[in-house]
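User: Fold both of these, please.

Assistant: Here is the first one.
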Amino acid sequence: MNTNPPKGSNKPSAYGSAKDLPTYKEMSQQIQGLKLLTRVIARDQRQKLLEIEEQMERLTRVVDDFYDRLGSRNWIFHDTLNVDKIEQLIAETADAESAEIRLIDLYRDREEAKRWHMLLRSHEGLRKRLHLIERAREHYDADQFDSCVLQLIAIMDGFVNDVEPEARKGLHARNPDDMAAWDSAVGHHMGLTHALATFTKTFKKRVDEEVFDVYRHGIMHGTVVNFDNVVVATKAWNMLFAVADWATATHKAAEPNISAPSIRDTWKSISRHALYKKYQQEFVPSTIESSDSGFSSNEIMLLASEFLDAWEHGRWGIVARFKPPILCESKSDGYTAREAKTTFEPYDLKDWSIKSITYDQASSVEIMAQATVNNQVTEMRFRIVFWSVDGNVAIPDREEGDWSLAVWAPNTYLKVAAE
């Protein structure tokens, strides 16, 4: 689908509604054409088409409702947010204050955070700052909110400069209009550009009262001195995810324009989306323990064993096959093997055993094991995800794809066992 800005166009401007996004407009037009087509042929597909149209309407409604409720408080709707949970949040709260409390609870949920942080790794500039992001999360979980905010501000400033190095401006030096995002929910007029006006607000005198927004200028220059609270820290996380979406949109807008897809291509894409949505809705979590029958022949257990065995014996070419595809580049097998060695060799793995396999999310499995790492008995938890050949999350046993690690950082798998 051609959602890129026309050649020679100016920078994107903020959108009045999620329905103004180019992708929504084009998909809506395609659906109307397909609805006419299904009156003549493929009539059995018409209901599926109507369901997809309803899902699109729901998504845009949730985004607009989110901004109506929370945009004035400088909260930004980013792609990582769970639409179902945001819809529920809006429905079950009556005002901005109570909605804000519920939203902060989502960010405080560590399991939810694991999924969110995994998606940050799609950007090279954020992968280079992964150690800073992890430290910020540690401070956030420990209620050390002021240090968390300082870390996240530094990450955002540097990352934005990496995305557009020719501009040589960090986030702090950007005009809000410079951060308008093409074809992204963060590009809403109450989204990133709105929040950035507060981010860059100048403070010439000291402010002693407690603040509840990310006043970057005042915080970094020492004029805003009372920002150590969960609201400011969570808004800093919210802005980081929004900036990541802005970077995605910026790269997307810079890609060469491509021709519009055929009706067949669009129908294939819509059908696949509906199929995956149905798979998510019908997914039932389950766990298989090492003592259960069939555990030794379980597909995930065998894959996890292959990975751990290769790690233990330094077979780095095999370890490299488990690298998340979103991090893979066009490199030789030798290069990726050396990279795997650099990443995993510092963690000397021995005497491992897999304890359980938990299918807790659609297309995603958590493996729990025990091992000795660098001479310490360690509990291990790591996740693998089923990816399609085109880099999207896929449906196991129904689509072509491979299981790969969710996170390429062995230190995040380890927890020293209690004596």
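And the second sequence with its predicted structure:
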Amino acid sequence: MADKQAAEEVVVEAQLWFRENWDPALSVGDWWQRLASSGYAFPRWPALAGGRSLDKAAARAVIEARRSVGAYGPPNGIATFLVAPTLFQYGSEEQQARYLPAIANGTVRWCQLFSEPGYGSDMAGLSTRAELDGDEWTVNGQKVWTSGAHNADYAILIARTDPDKPKHKGITFFLFDMGQPGVEVRPLREMTGGTAFNEVFMSDARVHERDRLGDIGAGWHVAMTTLSHERNPENPGLSETAPFGEVDLAMPVGDHAAAEARNADGFSVSLSGGGGALFDRVVAETDAWANPLMRQRLVELASMRRIGRWSNARTATRMKAGAQPGPRVSTQKINGAEMGRRMRDLGLEAMGAEGMLWSDDTVTDGLFHRYAMFTPASSIAGGTDEVMRNVLGERVLGLPREPGDSDQREKPWKDLPKG
């Protein structure tokens, strides 16, 4: 009873605060700073990072209180749902104090320098090198499929620091300055028409020893923590605002929110959970439920979506606040990718001929088509469906590893076949 009363008091307090403080005429920067200073930016986070250390139920009530007055949400992206939770677990007090406040108020943006062009899903085979030179590391190599790198101020980087050790043991995790000399970003054009992804080239770039996260050679374990948060649909750092793109912090926040809604691309829609909302809009506007064959497939999809919500909630109740999600979150990742494909196929089919025509005067003003074009990425980004099934098989069901995998895990990285 005491906990319920405390939660109700939190909700009342939050509702009052948002009614008194939300002002669409404020600049984006001022609004995000006000939100972070209040602790309502990310309610489940500690105060240092714009939070109030609330439990899941109370935090959700705070978010609903914000939405009820139409207030724009906090920053969103790599910084909030990957960097912050990794810093919570592995960052020193100095690192947390230096980086978390600017993540909470959106004044710095981050990207993720993990994947490389020569290693596909074998991320542990990476060849980007970091060599210690005094109290700094010199970094050389190439990364690819880096979301938001063209707008990022910093990056989380994994690099090989000891080629004489097995591939999983010679990797170190760094907090990396993207604005320095020796860093080149080249955008990659996607079939959505957007450029959310990039190639990143590093030539004698530098990173200070104080920006190493975790022990030397322990970067693989830190990176797995990061990826587990990426695969966690209940990640408290997720927001409904667009996760990537240039943000004018001086722009009135109401104008920014309106422009974001008009210009949302498939990547933003997909990551912020808007795919389901767009799909529901397509179904309503095309009266898809009137078709008996379509209705049966819609019921199947509705069941998958309900199971997904139940699974997400079950995972959340098992986790302690701030704990690392376990390998079972791979189930949600696979299920989410499959639901995305089904929503894409059913939505385009429900449109009829309009499903073949991508323009601003189609259903949802072309947004669903953009979402449909981006859907294949959901089976790749954050770990392919095949990798996720291997994770479940090996780490949850206890099945043996793939043939030859054990041998590769024991040999020094320098002796392994490359490319």
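Residues 292-318 form the longest helix (27 residues).
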